[in-house]
Amino acid sequence: MTAKxxxxxxxxxxxxxxxxxxxxxxxLLSKKPLTIKxxxxxxxxxxxxxxxxxxxxxGKQFIKKxxxxxxxxxxxxxxxxxxSIADIIKEKLSDLEKE
Length: 99
Prior knowledge:
Layout: H1 3-16, H2 20-31, H3 36-43, H4 47-59, E1 63-70, E2 72-79, H5 82-98
Antiparallel strand pairs: 1-2
Helix pairs in contact: 1-5, 2-4
């Protein structure tokens, strides 16, 4: 296996892997959409940790955020559909096979 291909495999694995806190946040959002304040209250994680987890999960396209305006701008986070997540994984693996 070439170093380039090995590096691509590492990139796919990093994209698909989520940490313990990200998993906790994802599981909460899979039950119902929540704001950051609601996630803090339910999860007992710090707001900074939650923001980091949400940023990673949005970047991996496992969750999405929707703007709400209730006096001030807030975001509602929710998981993408299982089909969307599966499609993302398939696409990453397909890209890997092409090289």
